[in-house]
Design brief:
Endonuclease - Pi-scei, Chain A, domain 1; globular; 4 helices; alpha+beta; single chain; five-stranded antiparallel sheet
Length: about 230
């Protein structure tokens, strides 16, 4: 099914990447479903630590928007996930033919001190049904992903539709605001990494992403996690 302009319809409440999405680690490409808290994956900051798995579910089939560029990069992500479009963040569902995504220039290799990026034009957009929902949160706030065998990927935010979208906030700024709001959690992970490992374990079997769990459950898990490491 090829999508023209903004015809994509979000058929499920999901904001993630499918299980077979590839990310780039210090030891090469790896399925996103195999990523764990503490792993280092490629971002615009270089290799950045994963401090939380906001969603990790291999038992659900969901709709994703698949975007192909003239550089042959392919990315599949949920419609309400943020992605760099024409230099600014936007929902994947708002990407249009001719827009330009940010992709890593593979000719520079995987030297984390010398990552280089280029713009690639969108040539095809379609809806696909895929297995799994995964969303690793990096300390950097973004992630490089690919849905084919290229040795470089597309830059996407780790964030998606949460709550600021209901208040008329400029969508291009929302991922940055969410990243600021989660600063305390990253500071905790930096000093007590076992805290975020244990916190994530409370939601391993959930079919919901963390932002769908509800404040009460998140607070309860946070308190229980804190007592577990004291």
């Amino acid at each position: 099914m090829t999508i023209q302009e903004n015809e994509f319809k979000d058929s499920v409440d999901s904001e993630c990447f499918p299980a077979d999405t590839l990310v780039f680690t210090t030891s090469g490409a790896k399925r996103i479903s195999d990523i764990q808290v503490g792993d280092y994956i490629s971002t615009t900051c270089g290799f950045s630590s994963v401090y939380l798995l906001a969603h990790a579910n291999d038992n659900v089939i969901s709709s994703f928007v698949e975007i192909t560029t003239d550089s042959q990069h392919v990315i599949q992500l949920s419609p309400s996930h943020y992605i760099k479009v024409n230099g600014h963040y936007s929902f994947a569902s708002d990407v249009k033919l001719g827009d330009r995504l940010t992709v890593r220039d593979a000719s520079h290799g995987m030297n984390h001190t010398n990552f280089a990026y280029q713009k690639a034009k969108v040539t095809k957009i379609r809806q696909v049904e895929k297995l799994g929902l995964y969303s690793p949160f990096t300390m950097c706030g973004d992630v490089e992903v690919t849905s084919n065998e290229l040795n470089s990927g597309v830059i996407a935010s780790i964030y998606s539709d949460w709550f600021l979208e209901d208040f008329g906030v400029d969508p291009s700024t929302i991922p940055y605001i969410y990243h600021i709001l989660l600063t305390p959690l990253r500071l905790v992970h930096d000093k007590y990494p076992e805290w975020t490992w244990n916190f994530a374990s409370y939601f391993e079997d959930s079919e919901k992403s963390l932002h769908q769990e509800g404040v009460g459950k998140l607070i309860a898990a946070g308190i229980a996690t804190t007592f577990s490491i004291l």
